[in-house]
Amino acid sequence: MKLLYLFSIIITLFSCKEYITEKNCFKGQKEKNTRHREFEVDNLEKIIKANPNYIKFTMDQNIISFEENNAEERNSALYDETEWKKRLEEYNNQFAALSNYFNDQFLYIAIQKERNTIFGVAQNQFGYWFLEIKNNIPAAYYLGLSNYTFINKKQRKNFVNEDKLMLYGSFVRIKGSWGYPFGPQMEVVKDRLNFECNLDSIRKDSDKDHFNDLFEKLVLLDPNSSDTDNDGISDFKDINPLNKAENSKFTNLYSQLIDIDYKNYDFSKNNYSFAGYFSDCDYFQKVGPSKVKVLIYPENERVNLKSDYKLNMFQEYVGKIKKDTDGKTFYINFGSGAGGGYYKAIYENGKWALTKNSTYNI
Ligand SMILES: [Ca+2]
Ligand SMILES: [Ca+2]
Fold first, then answer.
1. Does some domain include residue 227?
2. Same domain as 280, residue 179
3. Which ligand is nearest to the CA of 238?
4. Euclidean distance between CA atoms 154 and 277, whole angstroms
5. 298 and 149 in one domain?
6. Which domain holds residue 191?
7. Which of 173, 246, 247, 261 could form a Cys-Cys staple with 286, CB 3.0–4.6 A?
8. What pTM value is reported for the model?
9. Are residues 49 and 160 in the same domain?
10. Ligand 2 mean position to 187 CA, how many Å?
């Protein structure tokens, strides 16, 4: 991500000719350069301020530290295939009661089984979630923790007690020095913490659409409307909940382009995972991909999204459309932490033939 915008500026794949700007989708002569802002190391005061006020924390020297937690992970002989398989089997057995309902949408951290209820703590691209399966009905609630919060892999046996959720963890931040190919590394700023919150604050779902208010606020859905884009499909089921999808030539191009990366999967029924993009292009905003749910924001929404989440939410930059002189060939640049390049799209007989070409790797 750090190099992504830099690359999108310096890599000019095609010669600049005169193009018509239509709906902000096509490359014009005057391109607005997106400047990369240098990464800032956050201080403790800012980190504590970012902790939501419904979550209390206390220090306890008996809680395993961030380093101890990581050392355990490192010692786990992950390169030994037998050991790796054994651990995977243990993980699958331990969390089967959760993955039966949520499949592989989450990385599971803790599970607590009661008579009619199963509780869980899990993680995905947005952060940490509280899971609850009551009388066979599953629900996932986004915890709304700041991204400066790390939750330990080992939790107490009963992390839910009455209406309280209690979790061991620490406050962390991204180290000042990081770069590809290793990605951001975390360091601890306040260790051995016990986080405690009231589950009513977490469960609050004002519009009753199965996304709790904390999640809707994070991704800029409307917590008071179960159908944010007013297209008749609830936010929870909508493949593109922020924008009404449409079926048109260039919208279909962008839909197909998103599906290329998911051709061997089908994440479309995964309610809690999304591919995120920024784009001012109307056609792009109105996509309806078939393999994955999307969140597409206009560029000016960048400021409204929590900056510490962007690393995980927006993995790929997808550019505007460049027309070739033959009138049927089009190019779209892309970039991501893992590399970049361009899509080549040919429109013939009402259909798009699309290829993804990588031109540079980091
Ligand atoms: Ca809701
Ligand atoms: Ca909708």
1. no
2. no
3. 2
4. 34
5. no
6. 44-203
7. 246
8. 0.87
9. yes
10. 39
